Description:
The chain is an all-alpha fold. The chain is 61% helix and 0% strand.
Amino acid sequence: MTNMLGHPSASPERQIQESKYNAARLNLLLVVAFTAINIILFVANGNYYLLFSAFLPYVLPSIGMELCGMLPPEYYDEYYEGGYAAQEFFAPSVFYVLLGISVAILALYVVAWLFSKNQKGGWLIFALVLFGLDTVFMLIGGISVDMLLDYVFHAWVIYELVVGVVAWRKLKMMPIEEPVPVSETETPPTDDFGMPQ
Length: 197
C-alpha cells in the first residue's frame, strides 16, 4: 500500500503501535520540561508548582535550601523550634551538591528521551524504571491528601510508559514492511505536467 507521494505506508496496526510509542516519549519529554520548570521556580523562590513532574529532582534542591537556611526566615519561625535565629544551617555547598544530583537525574531522563528515538525501546524501559523509583521515593514519605494529584499524574506517566514499552515490543515482533517494487515495464501514472501521481 502506498500513500499520496508514492511511498510505502505502514499498516494500520504498525501506525497504532508507533503512535503509542511516540505518545510515551512525549509524556517523558513533558516530565522533563515540567520538572525543570519546577526546579527553576523553586530555586527562584516562586510559589508555583506544576504537576506532571518527577518528584526526586524537585525535592532534592528544596531539602538543600531548607537545610542551608535559604528559605524565608518566616518558614523557620513557623516550623522550627526557636525560629530562624536558633537554627544551625549547613554550608551552601550542600545545596549545590543536591542541586547537581537533581540536574544529573533530570539529565538521565533527557538521555532516555533522546536515545529512545527510532524505536530504541530499551531507553524507554530505562525511563520507566527511573520514574518507577521516583514514585517509590515519593511514597516512602507517606501518603498525603495534599499530594493526591501528584499520585494520579505519576500513575498516568507510568501507565503511558508501560503502554509505550508494550507497543515497542509489538513493533519488534511485526515483520519489516518492504516497499513494493514497481515493475520496469510498468510506468507510474503522471499528471498533465509529467509528474508522478
